[in-house]
Design brief:
The structure holds two protein chains of two kinds. Chain A is of the alpha/beta class. Helix content of chain A is 22%, strand content 22%. Chain B has three domains: 1-31 and 298-385, Fumarate Reductase Iron-sulfur Protein, Chain B, domain 2 (Orthogonal Bundle), CATH 1.10.1060; 60-289, NagB/RpiA/CoA transferase-like (Rossmann fold, 3-Layer(aba) Sandwich); 387-450, no CATH class. The chains are: A alpha/beta, B alpha/beta.
Chain lengths: 194, 455
């Protein structure tokens, strides 16, 4: 018997009572002002939030946030200040030393600041390898809680997606909170469609 | 009557400052957990639901595993099955060999600790690099985690500073956490860049979609899988869950219970290999399917590995992870160790005051303390009962079953009050260590009652 069959047979042999699947229909928390809650929690987890004014250009706003950034990665066509495209780099390693990566978030979650980012370019490394991550998010796409978020999120052919909530962090040395462990040391969320 | 745990705990406590710091920092995490849980009116409902989903899943585990494996394979992922640690390690090594991979970057995985994977791979000449900061510190020190979520909680910043001075050539005497974290970032960045393969554990495997879900704060699981073309996932079979609706329940509980955060920074869903790459999932049993058959202890399989039971445990906080002989400490570790080998790990069972706090924080509502109590009840059967306690229990059963004998004993008991201190407080009397015994009353309640002196 191969290992798969042996494991499955042993499981079947050992199950004693079975339990039915519960109905998952939980009233997740709702906030009176879902956008404000999302902004507050994003700042609590170490992120920054900017609102894009109607007459402002997103490229200008990013430049104002990161005036010294030279290597900017993005595969979004509207990001004209991008110097590197994670879709066309030869290998993921070429994205090292990226100062700012700009991505689009699909959904924001007000209870914990998570933003759903499905892989949208060949090298997902761009989202993690950068010093600072800028996430564009429509304020019309903020849900209250994770139950709602999981009903909304979509995958594409890349087969990878991640919720990101704030910058990379660690407290592994004496519980002292430090931003910028292995991944982006800062995150700016730009809310659009105000 | 001392167990290995109590002896090791005494050593831990001999460093008064360090042990107090340990207790307080971990209590702080427990406190954050409380604050966050109280922020959700549906918290208790979530815990109930989480327990019910896990009960359902582990009692239909064969079906969910088959479904998960089929889905993952449909996504182009290569699925392996390992009966035990040895088979798991061999599979990992074979995959690495096929790809001529020499350097493996790893994100945190307690399962690979359980399997002693690193030692095995290193003995075969593979360069294994842990990439979670805490795990990397421990790896460079050549020691093991003392907590499953905060692995280096017992290490002081000065020790890390000294270690990095030697290994990463940081400034002499600089033990600032921000400085040291930055040094580790640069060091690990080079490892990510040059790795041939990346390995992650799995917080969840979603049967409906075949996703592997990995939660980290550092982003090291993502860095480990973004540069190398090869991704190997090591997953315990009990980590499979039905669908996204279930996942949302667990994710809302996990980080809040573990570290008192509303979520981990990254919650990554790996469904397919990178473009041009390969993704492997190894489903590991290593005793789990046997636990299913244990009527008293099968619910340990519901564990999410959040560590909340450790953070709340008064014994864990005051004795440290190294006092336990199993690699997972605290209430869940006591139980998992006994399920692994009662002969080898029975010393941990005494590390519990039966305060039941762990039961109240467990996000999967495992009856941890009740299970520990049950292990204690089984000690005589497995030949682990303490000889002195057993003799005393026998003695007490004779006294309590004979009213005449009991009354006589009680009559003479006050003599003990007058005995010299050294005769009572010595190595033979474990109850007299670190505390004074109450003195016996001159007259028993029964005596007073009969004389009509009880009002």
């Amino acid at each position: 018997m191969n290992s798969k069959d042996a494991i499955l047979a042993n499981i079947k042999k050992n199950i004693r009572h079975t339990y039915d699947k519960p109905e998952i229909n939980i009233p997740g928390i709702h906030y009176p002002d879902v956008i404000q809650q999302f902004i507050d929690i994003s700042e609590t987890v170490g992120g920054k939030v900017e609102k894009l004014a109607q007459d402002d250009d997103v490229n200008d706003l990013i430049k104002r946030c990161y005036p010294d950034a030279k290597k900017i990665a993005s595969s979004l066509p509207e990001i004209t200040i991008a110097t590197t495209n994670p879709n066309t780099v030869k290998q993921a390693q070429d994205l090292n030393d990226t100062e700012v990566t700009v991505v689009r978030g699909e959904w924001g979650v007000a209870e914990n600041g998570c933003i759903w980012i499905p892989q949208a370019a060949k090298e997902k490394a761009a989202y993690f390898i950068c010093e600072y991550l800028v996430i564009l998010l429509s304020s019309k796409r903020i849900v209250h809680n994770m139950h709602e978020a999981y009903q909304k999120i979509q995958f594409n052919d890349y087969g990878f997606g991640t919720f990101i909530s704030g910058p990379s962090k660690t407290a592994d040395i004496e519980q002292a909170l430090v931003m910028g462990a292995q991944s982006a040391r800062g995150v700016t969320i730009i809310l659009t469609d105000e | 009557m001392s167990t290995k745990h109590s002896k090791a705990a005494a050593r831990f406590l001999s460093n008064e400052e360090g042990s107090q710091w340990h207790n307080q920092s971990i209590w702080y995490v427990r406190d954050k957990r409380d604050t966050l849980s109280k922020g959700l009116p549906e918290w208790e409902e979530l815990r109930n639901l989480s327990s019910d989903i896990k009960r359902h899943t582990v009692t239909h585990l064969d079906q969910y595993l088959e479904k998960f494996a089929l889905q993952a394979e449909a996504n182009g992922v290569i699925v392996h099955w390992a009966k035990d640690a040895g088979e798991h390690n061999q599979i990992v090594y074979d995959i690495l060999q096929q790809h001529q991979a020499k350097k493996l970057v790893k994100s945190k995985s307690m399962l690979t600790e359980e399997c002693h994977l690193n030692d095995f791979l290193i003995s075969k000449g593979i360069d294994v690099v842990e990439t979670d900061l805490g795990e990397r510190i421990l790896q460079l020190m050549n020691i093991k985690p003392s907590h499953i979520v905060m692995p280096a909680i017992h290490i002081k910043r000065e020790e890390v500073g000294k270690l990095f001075e030697e290994k990463l050539h940081t400034e002499k005497g600089n033990s600032d956490p921000t400085y040291l974290t930055k040094a580790a970032r640069i060091h690990l960045r080079n490892e990510f860049m040059s790795a041939d393969a990346g390995m992650t554990g799995a917080n969840f495997g979603v049967a409906a979609s075949g996703d592997i879900v990995v939660c980290t704060n550092e982003g090291n699981a993502d860095m480990s899988t973004s540069m190398p073309k090869l991704h190997i996932v090591s997953m315990g079979i009990e980590k499979v869950i039905p669908d996204y609706a279930s996942l949302s329940v667990f994710l809302r509980l996990l980080a809040r219970s573990a570290t008192g955060q509303p979520t981990t920074t990254y919650t990554s869903h790996f469904r397919k290999a990178r473009p041009g790459g390969e993704m492997h999932i190894i489903l590991v049993d290593n005793g789990r399917s046997d636990i299913l058959g244990d009527e008293l202890h099968w619910e340990t399989l519901k564990c999410l590995r959040c560590g909340a039971c450790m953070n709340t445990c008064p014994v864990y906080r005051r004795s440290g992870g190294y006092s336990y002989t199993y690699f997972i400490p605290g209430p869940i570790g006591i139980n998992l160790g006994m399920l692994r080998s009662p002969q080898e790990y029975s010393d941990n069972v005494s590390a519990c005051s039966l305060c039941c706090s762990c039961d109240n924080v467990c996000p999967a509502k495992i009856n941890l303390s009740e299970q520990i109590y049950r292990w204690r009840q089984s000690f005589d059967t497995i030949g682990k009962a303490d000889k002195m306690k057993k003799a005393m229990s026998y003695g007490m059963s004779i006294i309590f079953n004979n009213p005449g004998l009991y009354r006589t004993a009680l009559k003479f008991a006050p003599i003990i009050n007058k005995l010299p201190h050294g005769l009572i407080y010595n190595g033979l009397n474990a109850w007299g260590q670190g505390r004074e015994l109450p003195s016996f009353a001159k007259h028993s309640f029964e005596e007073l009652w009969k004389k009509g002196q009880v009002k």
